[in-house]
Amino acid sequence: MTVPNPARRTSPRSDLTTPPPDAAEPRVDPKAELDFSEIGDVLGNACFGCGPEVPHGLRITRTGHEGSTSYGEFTVIPEHQGAPGLAHGGILAAAMDEILGTSAWLLGGRYVTGRLETDFVRPVPVGSRVHLTARCTGVHGRKAYMEGEGRIGGPDGPVAVRAAAVFIEVPLEHFTEER
Ligand SMILES: CCCCCCCCCCCC(=O)SCCNC(=O)CCNC(=O)[C@H](O)C(C)(C)COP(=O)(O)OP(=O)(O)OC[C@H]1O[C@@H](n2cnc3c(N)ncnc32)[C@H](O)[C@@H]1OP(=O)(O)O
């Protein structure tokens, strides 16, 4: 297996996903926190990322949070393959989108992914349990800057994927208007 060179893989962040100097510190909304711990499935069960019974979905379990840092896990199943025996990169990006979106949710607004940048650091074999972490690095207007990583086998396992993103706050109509 190819060994990644950490010196060349410091961060997926670009200027677009780096908070500006005058960004505010993230503040967790107590009501969103309540959603996280007591409702969990507030968005329904159809989500490809976290729906517990979506066929071939990621079925990510949110395992906890500390401030805006959130944690989750999922298992790579054969239907998540790209190259034989290995997770598809799009699956790993979707997993990062989900956990980054979870941290954005904790801020209390309704956020959608505007931009998602991903570094694929090492291959992830089918059967792996992937441990996801995400956090908010700053808020500026409607923009929430996010970053996170996925590790193989445990919270201290080797990093397989890193992501940085900017999420944009949207009104409720974003989800309800007819298109
Ligand atoms: C416990 C339960 C947990 C629940 C946890 C739930 C987890 C769910 C996770 C899944 C999340 C998703 O996948 S969401 C689905 C994927 N995403 C989408 O479908 C979004 C599609 N795109 C859009 O609808 C739109 O482009 C928007 C809303 C993103 C932006 O449009 P807009 O509202 O007109 O805003 P606009 O004026 O263009 O931009 C507002 C500001 O954001 C910046 N901005 C906009 N787009 C970008 C961009 N790509 N990259 C950088 N910056 C951007 C602009 O420069 C501007 O900055 P400034 O001028 O203010 O400085």
TrEMBL record:
Alphabetized UniProt keyword annotations: Apoptosis, Cell membrane, Cell projection, Cytoplasm, Fatty acid metabolism, Hydrolase, Lipid metabolism, Membrane, Transit peptide
Intracellular or extracellular location(s): Cell projection, Ruffle membrane; Cytoplasm; Membrane
Region (Disordered): 1-29
UniProt-listed InterPro entries: HotDog_dom_sf (IPR029069), THEM4/THEM5_acyl-CoA_thioest (IPR052365), Thioestr_dom (IPR006683)
Pfam families named among the record's database cross-references: 4HBT
Protein's GO biological process: fatty acid metabolic process
Its EC number(s): 3.1.2.2
Molecular function GO labels: hydrolase activity
A single cellular component GO annotation: cytoplasm
Record-linked SUPFAM superfamilies: Thioesterase/thiol ester dehydrase-isomerase
Top-tier EC class: hydrolase
Catalysed conversion reaction: octanoyl-CoA + H2O = octanoate + CoA + H(+); hexadecanoyl-CoA + H2O = hexadecanoate + CoA + H(+); tetradecanoyl-CoA + H2O = tetradecanoate + CoA + H(+); (5Z,8Z,11Z,14Z)-eicosatetraenoyl-CoA + H2O = (5Z,8Z,11Z,14Z)-eicosatetraenoate + CoA + H(+)
Topology term for the membrane: Peripheral membrane protein
Stretches assigned to the Thioesterase domain: 85-153
Family recorded in the similarity comment: Belongs to the THEM4/THEM5 thioesterase family.
Protein name according to UniProt: Acyl-coenzyme A thioesterase THEM4
Record organism: Thermomonospora cellulosilytica
